[in-house]
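A further point concerns the way the authors explain their paired sequence and structure data. Showing the layout once, in full, would remove most of the difficulty. For illustration, here is how one protein appears when written out as sequence plus structure tokens:
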Amino acid sequence: PGGALAAGGGGRAAGGQPEDAVAARGLVMLGEPQVGAYALAARRRLELLSEASTRIGTTLDVRRTAEELAETAVPGLADFITIDLPDAVLRGEEAADPLADLRRTVVHGVREGLPFTPPGKRIGFGPATPQLRCLGSREAVLEPDLRAAAGWLAQDPEYTARLLAHVHSLIAVPLLARGVVLGVATFYRSGGVFGDDDRSLAQELASRAALSIDNARRYTHERTMVLALQRRLLPHGLPDQDAVEVAHRYLPAESDVGGDWYDVIPLPGARIGLLVGDVVGHGMLSAATMGRLRTAARSFAELDFPPDEVLTHLDNLVGRLDREDPDGQGVGVIGATCLYAVYDPADQRCLMARAGHPPPALVRPDGTVTYPDLPAGPPLGLGGLPFDAVEVDLSEGSQLVLYTDGLIEDRHRDVDVVLEQLRQALAHPERAPEETCQVVLDTVAPAHPHDDIALLVARVHALDPGRIASWELTADPALVGEVRAAAVRWLSDRGLDETAFAAELILSELITNAVRHGAAPIRVRLLYGRTLICEVSDASNTAPHLRRAASTDEGGRGLFLVAQLSQSWGTRYLPEGKVIWAECELDAA
């Protein structure tokens, strides 16, 4: 080309193009033989890191996150990988000494059958092993040729000799996140040798996985605390009573803990209160709020308010909690739903009311399952709206099933279909409540619940008519002695002579007060169960008041004597009038 330019002086070639332009066309490439291999390795490295960003940390489960690291590294980087985590990390805690309680968590490779320590076994590393050195230095340790790795060979000569038949090179990497050592990952190759680039790649993968493991650990720790709080705030046992046979279950959501609760509350007159509620939301705040609401609901119930009044008081409490707003953000704490039922075994009737809660299921002795037409009422916290109570007759052996919405509501299921499934699961009245609870959870509850589930199954019993005595009288003081004598005879016929003395004094005082200060009709009732319950009712809403009479007073000691002779006493208001009751031990004499 140089000669052509010199001779032609910039002339034109065929086609009208300058001759120097034609002569200059061409391409020269200079390079080293290994450039292509480097480019391919870099590309694979980037692809592996990109894959790791999408595959590692898809759940908040420590063990699963470790498995995702293993599945990403094999076979892209290593042929085999083992991951060892402290027991504390698996529980969601921070390990005080990561070297003291390491446990084999994951073993993964291109094939099975290698003599690696299986998952679940405790792992101990010698002082010169690559794993212990990497944990001490917090840097990846590379052993390109395991046959020359004296520390690794000395750890367990018999074990390492068997392993050398399958692996030739090793990288030990600490799982380090936020300055905390979470464990160690060991990468093995059976063919080829690890290099420095592989070490940096292994460290990068381990760093990403460690951050996800730490997130999962923190979540596990928080969920464990909330679940412990939730279970601590739920009833620890069932009260001794004869009105119902009860079984219950609490199932937390998979992702988080909510605010579902249940309670069984003994009430005066051998009655029993059944309570189920649900606080909206999840986490520590919902669990703590649940505890406050359950305590308040129990207190209102023990004051013997009817179900609709209990819900009214809870509604006011939830509204007050919202106004207090602990975060000061004005967001509002909660909404909540609740169902409260009171069963009386003496007349076999159940009074119930609900506040935005799913209706209960009623299982009759013949297997018929219905959902009582109970007014829904507004959720707790809205304020200003009334709650209506409905009374239902329950024959001996009927079952009342109370539950929270986590049992029937699920984004992938139709509520009507689930209610029909629940109906079919409950249509076996011969089952005991414990068995019924388990069948409902096995057949009706979602496989992966997104919300808590509280379930309460109560089979009702009737009080034997032979253990109930009642009298009705007018406001005539002369009749007090007759009723008192009749009550003593009734107690004596049942072998309760020792209890009759205290019961006679209690009845004398309560009936006399009703005659003097109450209004007709006056009714007297004795209930003989685990204890003896004396009830006197009248049509007046005036409640008695206990006071201590002075030494010079001629009266005012009656209720004080009642309180001393009885185990407990109190007042229960009726739609018209009230009931004064006193409960005596059967050895009250």
The chain has 16 helices and 20 strands.
